[in-house]
Write a structure and sequence with these properties.
Low-confidence stretches: none
Distance between the termini: 21 Å
Strand order of the largest sheet: 7-6-15-16-17-14-18
Mean pLDDT: 96
Bound molecules: flavin-adenine dinucleotide
Largest sheet: 7 strands, mixed
Number of strands: 20
Number of helices: 8
Structural class: alpha/beta
Helix content: 25-40%
């Protein structure tokens, strides 16, 4: 029998990575599984020929001392930096420059960079869509769509996936955890990435929009470490996105480009739309994480802790601390 507990973490977004990193550093064996091709989850960057665009998380705060220290490590490693955009707010008829004391960080040279950095020291199984988990006498087993049931027996399974994606994995094994995940209402978001042949001459690099279908505008090229084409990003507001989730991308693009045009934005040379089915949680839960030591099953993720990058990282860490208390005897 393996004397070092071997744990499975499902989901290599920032919550799963933070959880796995702490467990790994404490000497436990950890295998991370993600259905995507690369780690990062919603800290995501779309890449094309000579262009890239952060189309999920736009920036992150670092208010908690532990997360600040982590972000300082990322800065030292060259995978994150401060972003100080010229920030505006459009609110009905009023448009104003928004003086802000908030420190905004971004991954460099792309939003995926911190995740890639964390994943580089971990055992990550990409393109492994975990569809079932089961608890046997000798531990947990996981079953992926790509490889079926894996032979490895895990001492615990930690789910770091959006709440609606946790429900089907939980509902027969831990109904109360499934109910917790069901209680988190996650909303969609349409993202539109715009490519321009020449720099766009607007007086802002980013804007919060409180009118029409738009919620957020950002000049991706204004973030530190970006090169290549002039790229802008539009996010639709959650209510609008939910109402138009099944629309064709062309219809969505038409509405968002029209709203961008009303704020002075020119028509792009090309655009790419992306639909996030689970972008944010409203209202986000404030539980930190969930852990059932008697069966070795845990949950972490942004939806359990404030709904942002910083909360997700802290949630993963909180779960790792609870798991370590169960597995590492002093
Ligand atoms: P995720 O990043 O969603 O990671 C979950 C991972 O689980 C994914 O990689 C997924 O592929 C994987 N997965 C799911 N199901 C399975 C399965 N069955 N098997 C295997 N793998 C699975 N936050 C901010 O702080 N600032 C912002 O400006 C901001 N803007 C945002 C804008 C948008 C459009 C979106 C979508 C999000 C934004 N966020 C923002 C939120 C932020 O991205 C998230 O809070 C954070 O990235 C969530 O991390 P996570 O690890 O909890 O989840």
């Amino acid at each position: 029998m393996n004397p070092v507990p071997h744990l499975a973490v499902i989901g290599s977004g920032i919550a799963g990575l933070s959880c796995a990193t702490m467990l790994h550093r404490a000497g436990l064996e950890v295998s991370l599984f993600d259905k995507a091709r690369s780690p990062g989850g919603r800290m995501s960057t779309r890449r094309g020929d000579d262009w890239q665009c952060d189309h999920g998380a736009q920036y992150f705060t670092a208010r908690h001392p532990e997360f600040r220290a982590e972000v300082a490590r990322w800065q030292q490693a060259g995978v994150a930096d401060l972003w100080a955009p010229r920030l505006w707010r459009f609110d009905g008829d009023s448009r104003e420059h928004r003086a802000s004391t908030v420190e905004r960080f971004v991954g460099t040279p792309a939003m995926t960079a911190p995740a890639r950095y964390l994943a580089s020291t971990l055992s990550v199984h990409a393109q492994s869509n975990i569809q079932q988990i089961r608890r046997e006498a000798h531990g947990w087993q996981v079953c992926s769509a790509e490889y079926g049931w894996l032979e490895t027996r895990f001492a615990a399974v930690l789910l770091a996936v959006p709440a609606p994606q946790a429900v089907p994995l939980l509902h027969q094994l831990a109904p109360e955890l499934a109910a917790l995940a069901r209680s988190a209402v996650m909303r969609g978001c349409w993202a539109l990435m715009l490519r321009f042949a020449a720099p766009v001459n607007l007086s802002f690099d980013a804007a919060f929009v409180n009118q029409g279908p738009l919620r957020w505008i950002a000049r991706n090229s204004s973030k530190p470490g970006r090169s290549g084409e002039e790229i802008w990003l539009l996010h639709a507001r959650a209510e609008w996105s939910e109402a138009h989730l099944e629309d064709e991308p062309e219809r969505v693009a038409e509405a968002l480009l029209d709203a961008f045009g009303q704020l002075g934005g020119p028509a792009p040379q090309e655009w790419t739309a992306h639909r996030w089915r689970y972008a944010d949680t409203e209202p986000p839960l404030e539980k930190g994480c969930a852990w059932r030591p008697e069966i070795g099953l845990g949950l972490c993720g942004d939806w359990l802790n404030g709904g942002k990058v910083e909360g997700a990282w802290l949630s993963g860490r909180a779960l790792a601390e609870r798991v370590l208390r169960s597995f590492v005897k002093c």
